[in-house]
Amino acid sequence: MDLTRRVSLYRLRPSEDLYAMRSDRAILDDHEFITLRVVVGGLPALLVAGLPEDDPAEWGGMVRSLTSVDIDFRTRTASAALFIRCGTEVYAVTFGQGWRLIRESRIDRDFGLQFAVRVLDPDEIRQITRWALSAKSRVDRSSVPGGQGLWAFGLREHAELVRQLTGYVRAEVPVELSHVRKMRNRNNFRLRLEFGDGVRMPLSSDGAGMAADLAEITRVLRDNTIDPRLQPLTWVRRIPSRDDRRAALERAVLDLLSGVGDGEVGIAYPARYHEGPPVDHFRGRINGTDIDTPDLTLADLTRPLLDPLSTGRLDALRTGRIAGYDEQGQTVGGDLPALHWIAAEVEHEETRCVLLDGDWYELGDEYIRHVQTVTERAFAHTPNWALPAWDDVRMPNEDTYNRHVARTDPRFLLLDKNLVFTRAHRRGFEACDLLGPGNELVHVKRTSSRTGSSPLSHLFAQGLVAAETLTDPRAWQDFTTLVANRSPERAARLGHRPSAIVYAIHRSDRLLTPDTLFTFARSALVSAWVTLTTYGIPVYVYVIP
């Protein structure tokens, strides 16, 4: 019987030279690692393996701290990587920490997900790890015990980047691996796979069997169609930190900050600022220049960067720090690199790429079409009441406008800067600026070409955080108590959850339309639209004249 073992498999970017697939560590530390040309089931291959020098155990310091006994704890971890050419493809099978022996720039990071969407059963996904493109948290790993399917994770397929999946292969999909043939006659056997940049899977321990397994994986990638339910998982791709495209993308951002180039750039709140009280003031330091302003704009970031911009470096934006503070002088989300406060959208080699929270993402055509469609739908939906026009001279900010609305139209209850405190939001969050005539949560924002439309991404995400939180009965009761303190009559007819979310937006220099939104601002709007309409909570965009 063919023996199999669960190992990690990576697909590499093709190269005529297998030696070029090795990491610098494997090349430079040649006294620790060996490199041998081998043949695996008739396929040309390269074995890189070794036992590195002893490393200090990570937990040794804690032992010393607890016991005052200084013992030099050491660990040794064997590792190996087997680079195999199979037709036009090159794969790497890794053992131990063998993934460290692969040159990162050669790893095809789409491989795991591309394999997953062709074989996984959406109803049998057990674990998912995703990076949020525009929602409230940066990284989220969730598990479902079984049988509930992918959508039990609350996946917002249009606005999140899925990085890891664990689940079972669809029963009707033929994946003729050695392990499947060996286990086929066992009752209730299902092939379980783990997907990330690579695939964690059982492969044959025999050379001929390994060659057959790799050929089968190549066939699946070539011939199997993508499950339509999983297709959205491929719409957004994170661009790895060592990807060659990053240098060109960063040069494009420098051009935009200098006032030239194609694309858009603006201020965007980092994700950790989507919760908590509103930001009242910004303070920081970039390239030796202090920042102290109630209204953060691109000029605040670019003014200190004349030298870095001229020399083509983003060092000052990476090392400079900015923090936002509430009215009490407490930081809302801590200080972060200045680069994390910039969002940009650029075209590169016929692909759309966005910079958000210091990271780069490539957006597929399907993603762009989906977001555009839902954004237009959100703008087309309006509430059955109207807000007064915004006089930019008499009402220079949201605070003055909100007070004007509540003063002139008693149907609206002013709740601006009134925070709801819950267990999950001990510092409080703003449920809305105005409570509408039909108990809609109205979030108000003023924008212009000076600030760009990117602050709207924070508005959309903040509204989503508030509405999602208020679907919890205990949080809704806390909100009801807040309303009762202002108007017992309104509190008595609140109902049991928000009736709708309304984003009321005024653009002072020209009319706001779906086309004037950044892609990442649209992502936040679509995230709110899809998630809240799933809860049965309508979402409206109201453009204030």
Describe this structure in a few short sentences.
This protein is an alpha+beta fold. 28% of the residues lie in helices and 28% in strands.
Secondary structure layout plus pairing:
Blueprint: E1 4-12, H1 24-28, E2 33-40, E3 43-50, E4 55-56, H2 60-67, E5 74-75, E6 79-86, E7 89-96, H3 111-119, E8 120-132, E9 139-143, E10 160-169, H4 178-183, E11 192-195, E12 199-204, H5 207-223, E13 236-238, H6 245-257, E14 264-267, E15 281-286, E16 289-293, H7 298-302, H8 306-311, H9 315-319, E17 321-325, E18 336-337, E19 342-348, E20 351-356, E21 359-363, H10 365-380, H11 398-408, E22 413-414, E23 419-420, E24 429-430, E25 434-435, E26 441-447, H12 455-470, H13 473-486, H14 488-492, E27 501-507, H15 519-534, E28 539-543
Parallel strand pairs: 26-27, 27-28
Antiparallel strand pairs: 1-7, 1-12, 2-3, 3-6, 4-5, 6-7, 8-9, 8-10, 10-11, 11-12, 13-21, 14-19, 15-16, 15-17, 17-18, 19-20, 20-21, 22-25, 23-24, 25-26
Helix pairs in contact: 10-15, 12-15
Structure description:
The protein is an alpha+beta fold. Helices cover 28% and strands 28% of the residues. It has 15 helices and 28 strands. It has a ten-stranded antiparallel sheet. Strands 13-21-20-19-14 form a five-stranded antiparallel sheet. Strand 2 and strand 3 (43-50) form a beta hairpin. Helix 10 crosses helix 15 and helix 12 packs parallel to helix 15 (519-534). It is globular. The N and C termini lie far apart (75 Å). Residues 134-142 and 144-159 have low confidence and may be disordered.
